[in-house]
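If you are new to this repository, start here. Below is one unmodified record pulled from the training split, so you can see the exact layout before writing a loader.
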Amino acid sequence: MKKWKIAKIKIENFKPFKEAYFDLKSSALITLDGPNGFGKTSIFDAVELLFTGKIQRVIARNNSIIAKGKKKTHFEENLYWNKQKQGNLVIRTELISEDGNDTLYLARVALTSDLSYEKNNAPDNFSIFKLYQLENFDSDNFNNLVSDSLIEDFLGRNFLKNFSLLNYLEQGENRYLHSTNANERKKGIEHLINTDKLSEQIQFFKSLESQINEDYVGKKHTDRLGELKTTLNDLSTQLADSSDSSSYKRLSNSTKIPNWDTQDPITTSDQAAFDKLIIDVDNVAKILANRDELIIRQSNNKIVDLLNKKEDIKIALTVGFFVDKYEDYGVVNKNLNQVNKNIAICETAPDKILKRELEQLSEDFKSEELEELIGERDKKKLLSDSESQKRLKLLQAQKDLLEQFHENCSNDELNCPFCNIPWESKRTLEEAAQKVIDDVKENIDVFAKEIEEINTSIKLCLDTIKIKLNTAKELLLFDFNLALYEQLKEFRLNLIVPGQLLKNLLNINCSHIALLKVVKPSRTLSYKKQ
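And here is the target side for that same chain:
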């Protein structure tokens, strides 16, 4: 607990003081000197009122002078208000901690409205003096109302109780130290040596001892013990007279054997354990009596749990029957992708296809003849001049265009695909295109002609392989559903659930499956297997 020192005190409108200010920060000992009536006692009264919320000597004298039941309740003037009767009565202080790091500002305030009210003017009425914590010493913002316990939070436990004893001797006498009543003196100072706590503990242990004696030693205990002994004797007599001897046979099938199903269920004299055993046995009897109903309810619960999995059921009914095909479909899909890649290779222009592309063909569709033709074509290209190679590329493009025109255009299509000029017939247009091709052939060298013939052979080989690939593709697609495979693949991480769920659904007849649209039954309704 920190030690605190009064640094400043300011008194306003209290008793003889209209305003009084004391700066005590630099002083270790303060002495007030002067004749009677100069306000020394009033300063001590102000300090006591500030810290304790009352003036003990006024209360004591008021009680000793005025008989009980004859105290006045209305007074024209307040004993503590300055005679000018103007402004709030304020006693404020600044406290600093011993190390100088903390500061506390407090004020005890009685408002003008409260001081002017006759019912508040009794000398021993200090209820109108409220304690406030201030932001600074000169603040008049009395909004932060605090309780007197704040004083003890900062200045120590029992500060309020000890103030009149330790901090202020009332003009040469103290009612605790100089009282003729020894019990009163003892009561006044016993908390200083913690005898009050000791007295509380002694009283507590006396009460505890009395309770223990009553429950475990006294008449209440003796009567209960007698009742238990009588009950035990009766049970022993009943067991001794029983001639029924049954062999032990376990009823439950749980891994952990319940106590009621053991050969010797009563292994303790604990009444609570015995009562629990009786309850367990009663519950087992109820279960046996309602066995058929419980089996139906258990079956119903499984059905309800199953039907609540609506999303899983939807998946199961969609793809559940085909779960076993997922792996096979995966193999077929892989082979289809490979076949499609091979077909794309075979659709490459014969003058552009390379040997390294042939290496990507599946083993069943590779051709040594095709590899030799491509090798021979590449050698001829090295021997042919660049101009002939250009014409050769043009020749190939023209032939491809003529072939596409012949395959894809009807006999009514008479416009040239290049210049869009109309012709008499499709045949005359094709003959004219062929003549252009023949003219180009005449202007290429011998090697280029040979390359053109090789390209024709390469195309023939590619077409042959493509026919085989399309046949293989048709066989793969015969028992393959791509859309179904995509659905299976979408749920591939959870295929076990739909498969198992479908089996569970098949174990329930159609009337149960229809329960998907039925509201969950009440406690008294049961499904019976049909």
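Two things worth knowing about this chain: The radius of gyration is 56 Å. The mean pLDDT is 76.
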